[in-house]
Amino acid sequence: QEGTKVPSKRKQNTSIVTSDLLHKILLKSEQENWNDISPTYKAMTKRIKEKLEELHNMYTLNSGSPRMRFGENVYFEENGCIFLAKADDVDEGNADILFSIEDLGFSDAFIQRIRISPDQSYMAISLKSENSEEATCIIMKLGNFPVVEKVIPSVFSFEWAANDVLYYTTQKNLKCQNVFMTTFTYQKHTKLVYTEQDARFFVDLYRTKDRRFLTINSNSKTTSEVWLVDCRRPFESPALVQARTTGVIYHIEHRKEQLYILTTYGEPAEYKAILTDNYIHKINLDTYCRSYRNSKLMEAPVASSGKENWQLVYALEKKTKLVDFEMFSDDCIMFLKNSGHLYLNVISFVSHSVQSIQLPTWACESELESHPEHTTSTCYFQLSSPVHPPKRFAYSFKENNLIEQAVQEVPIITNCHTTRLLAKSKDETLVPITVFHNKNSKELHRRPLLVHVYGAYGIDLNMSFKEEKLMLIEEGWILAYCHVRGGGEQGLSWHRDGCQHNKLKGLHDLRACIMLLHKLGFSQPKHTALAAASAGGVLAGALCNTDPALIRAMVLQAPFVDVLNTMMKTHLPLTIEEQEEWGNPLEDEKCMKYIKSYCPYQNIKPQCYPSVFITAYENDERIPLTGILQYVQKLRKAALDHASRKSKKGNWIPNIILDVQASGSHCDSSWEHSLNE
């Protein structure tokens, strides 16, 4: 209309240029600062690196990698190579190399996922470099001389529907919304099978254990929908199991014409599960894996799969979390966690009984090995903890017993003590803590303590084996893992109680955990450090603002520290789907005020802060680098302002250091890269 003011394009462009220029200035400043400071730690770095290499060679290399069994054949990956061996020869070292990363020129990549076709004529592999979230899928035609059949870029998940029919999802801007089918024999072709229209949903693939169905799973943080592809007729259109219903999450398995449904449907809904597969642990915690959050196992006929026909098979106890699940011909295995304790339930479909198997008290993480033959009589898996290297076990369905497998002679760790505690939070909720320390350590109150926290997305703290954790134990450190609300350690309700308008509960939990540790004589504030990664940076950064006197140092890796500004920017790839975790401050003023009340960046003020070390990545697509740069600048200024006001002789000024790495990304990387970090 006449008289309407037209926004100046020049002003908009100037704003963008100014923002980019500021980013470059801040980045250059931090890089120069790091180059000045890093030589200070050269001798310490050299000592630590040598020790970690020694531990890696002693434990990780000898612990063996997960194996995939197909009849008499066993496939496994080691050092960037994929091997094939006969089951009887695998422990003798007799294996053929099928694939080598270096031979194909992918020297900067690592193997993320492996899938073998049903007749073992093809092998699909995903390779991921350290500088990208997206993986490349390579299809090998197996035989006497394996050859590359096809290379597909930007792939997230993939499964074989038939001997020569592969389904896969593509990833773009951290989203997976398209499913394709490709064939490799007579009429080679590729076609689009499914497209997800809702930006909050992420699509991945799974194949049922009996190989009867391939499932197309479309999940948001709170809702899911599954489509079935009949592997006997892989070219037919997928069939819907149950239309998405807000708040209902479900995952499908199949056995003898019955669908087995892990779901949150009905009451109670007491846990959230992340089903890990053999290589998915190399994907970052915040990434949608084959994830589902469920509280019960139900069943329904394939022909009438709607939720009105779902019948209860098994329900979990309150505050019990399903960690992993595997279906066999007559049984199913469930790895469960309750108050930090890991145990195994075996459900028999023949005798309609449930057998509970206690696992070693030190076990914190389980990893099922791939069992392509669902008729097998033995289930193989590995158990580990942050300070216990993976140890292989087998459960025999026939003998109903647990057998520890000694693959190779690995030194046994006997001097580490595992303690599980419960801290009372502000609202009286009991929060689990897992503590590790050297049995021979005296005067624990004088020992340094490293506290770990995450508390987001209903995901557990990562408690898999890390060489650096064992090194710290050997050097007299205490390690504590705080399983605060917002994580998934005690089920779906544990996550709900720590997300959106409940986020502060996770902060209260963390504070209570650290205070209890000090009260019980595990270190003291001046010897305590706090470690967090990614979304764990929210609670760690918030505690740093509210209770800086509780810790002396904080170490953050690719931290999320600017929640409010990030959630206001809908052009970022994850903002829309993240609203179910953090809320929508653009449309809800109460939500905006609530996020502002705990957001680490928003609550920095002049006070005595702990020292802070942050690692960030230039190419991180998940956590905008600009937010971290501005956080560090603001934090450093606040610490200096406080020091100048007090200006007492010998007044302590914290080190606030940022290492921005040109290579690497938000996801876990290769051993070499993590060693350098």
TrEMBL record:
GO biological process, one term: proteolysis
The keyword Hydrolase is annotated on this UniProt entry: yes
Pfam families with a match to the protein in the record: Peptidase_S9 (PF00326), Peptidase_S9_N (PF02897)
Gene Ontology MF: a single term: serine-type endopeptidase activity
A single cellular component GO annotation: Golgi apparatus
InterPro entries found in the cross-reference section: AB_hydrolase_fold, Pept_S9A_N, Peptidase_S9_cat, Peptidase_S9A, Serine_Peptidase_S9A
Peptidase S9 prolyl oligopeptidase catalytic domain residues: 464-639
Keyword Transferase included in the entry's annotation: no
Annotated keywords: Hydrolase, Protease, Serine protease
EC number in record: 3.4.21.-
Peptidase S9A N-terminal domain boundaries: 57-401
Family to which the UniProt record says this protein belongs: Belongs to the peptidase S9A family.
Its biological purpose: Serine peptidase whose precise substrate specificity remains unclear. Does not cleave peptides after a arginine or lysine residue. Regulates trans-Golgi network morphology and sorting by regulating the membrane binding of the AP-1 complex. May play a role in the regulation of synaptic vesicle exocytosis.
Protein name in UniProt: Prolyl endopeptidase
Name of the gene: Prepl
